[in-house]
Write a structure and sequence with these properties.
The complex is a heterodimer of chains A (226) and B (138). Chain A has 226 residues and is an alpha/beta fold. Chain A has a single domain, classed as Spore Coat Polysaccharide Biosynthesis Protein SpsA, Chain A (Alpha-Beta Complex), CATH 3.90.550.10. Chain A contains ten helices and seven strands. A seven-stranded mixed β-sheet of chain A has the order 3-2-1-4-6-5-7, with helices on both faces. Chain A is globular. With 138 residues, chain B is an all-alpha fold. In chain B, helix 1 runs parallel beside helix 4, helix 2 crosses helix 3 and helix 3 packs across helix 4. The chains are: A alpha/beta (226), B mainly alpha (138). Chains A and B meet through strand 3 and helix 3 of A and helix 4 of B.
Chain lengths: 226, 138
């Protein structure tokens, strides 16, 4: 089967309504899926257990950044794993986009491939969200350095050397900025690929609230200190 | 006026202190000495309140009690930031602990579920980086 060397990491927190469908759809393209259940209070874990995805359960809720790192650590320990995809559990990402991004990484053109909502057209992105995300990019020194158009997209592909060196310490939502900063400081070739985000009613209720931006700024400003 | 400048400088100094990453043994000793100096000053202020008023006047503050309040605020912010960073450090350790446990257990469970082959089950210790104890040195 194709894509045996690709591992898809899906952090899951209270997604029992959609997670099984999302996993099944991803597994049509990528056989290796690891779902990290971040201490969900609902039936997410048993829904995942009903699929052929690998299940890792955090004993306590640690945050999305921590779940991503756990999934990456698990996938890195699997022999033959070369490409690592981070994928959202709420169904807003397209497997076809991930496939195109893996192809870019496979071609050797980039060490890390990041999805961007804004590269071609900002299709279907609510205007308020668009404004906030644009501001996040403009504020981030590292995002400007890498000439990124979308710093907070959950769809990413890392090659093995990148995944091995990445160590996410921001357990909460600030991990997106942390990953961008890590990529900027390392000597990696980064490429952005346009992706489509499906803003369904479900994903809208699960998406990051704008208020969260304040928390992210606070976390980032105090990181690595003390 | 002078007091305001000094207090603002104290706050700025604290921010600089937390922004710098030099948290070594010397820093820790410095913090402890500062703590004992602070205690000694408090004893002095309790025994001879008039002296604190005189000192406060030198800095343009009306009463000694006011000056003590300002100093208390500065010390409180300092302590709070310190606790916050220490808390974050131990949080990081909990995360690493939980991650190691979760992966170890997942390998067994996924093997039982038949999604992981048996030769693939091994200790995940090598896959997780050691915890940076940075946050615990304060």
């Amino acid at each position: 089967m194709a894509n045996e060397d690709v591992w898809v990491v899906i952090p899951v927190f209270n997604e029992d309504r959609v997670i099984a469908d999302v996993v099944e759809r991803v597994r049509e393209t990528f056989p290796n899926v690891v779902c990290v259940d971040d201490g969900s209070a609902d039936q997410s874990a048993s829904r995942i257990a009903g699929t052929r995805a690998h299940l890792v359960r955090h004993p306590i809720n640690l945050g999305q950044g921590a779940a991503l790192q756990t999934g990456l650590s698990y996938a890195l320990a699997r022999p033959g794993a070369k490409y690592f995809v981070t994928f959202d559990a709420d169904g807003q990402h397209q497997t076809s986009d991930a496939e195109r991004m893996v192809e870019v990484a496979r071609s050797g053109a980039a060490d890390a491939v990041l999805g961007s909502r804004f590269l071609e057209q900002a299709q279907g992105v609510p205007w308020l969200k668009r404004a906030v995300l644009r501001t996040a990019v403009a504020m981030s020194r590292t995002a400007r350095k890498l000439k990124l158009t979308d710093a907070h997209n959950g769809l990413r592909v890392f090659t093995r050397p990148v995944a091995e060196r990445l160590h996410i310490t921001m357990n909460g939502m600030a991990h997106a900025s942390e990953i961008v900063a890590f990529l900027a400081h390392g000597d990696f070739r980064i490429q952005e690929v346009p992706v489509t985000i499906l803003y369904t009613d479900y994903s809208k209720t699960k998406g990051q609230s704008l208020v969260n931006g304040v928390n992210i700024l606070f976390d980032i400003s105090l990181r690595d200190r003390g | 006026m002078l007091a305001q400048v000094l207090l603002l400088l104290a706050v700025a100094g604290m921010l600089l202190y937390f922004a710098s990453r030099k948290h070594n043994v010397r820093m820790q000793a410095g913090k402890r000495i500062a703590f004992f100096l602070f205690l000694a000053l408090n004893v002095y202020a309790v025994l001879l309140p008039n002296h604190t008023t005189w000192l406060a006047n030198q800095f343009g503050i009306g009463r000694g009690a006011d000056m003590l309040l300002y100093l208390l605020v500065v010390a409180f912010i300092f302590g709070m930031l310190n606790t916050y960073l220490r808390f974050r450090g131990s949080n990081q350790q909990i995360t690493e602990l939980a991650r190691t446990l979760a992966i170890r257990e997942a390998e067994l469970i996924n093997h039982q579920r038949g999604v992981l082959t048996s030769e693939d089950v091994h200790s995940p210790v090598a896959a997780t980086a050691p915890v940076d104890p940075e946050g615990l040195r304060s």
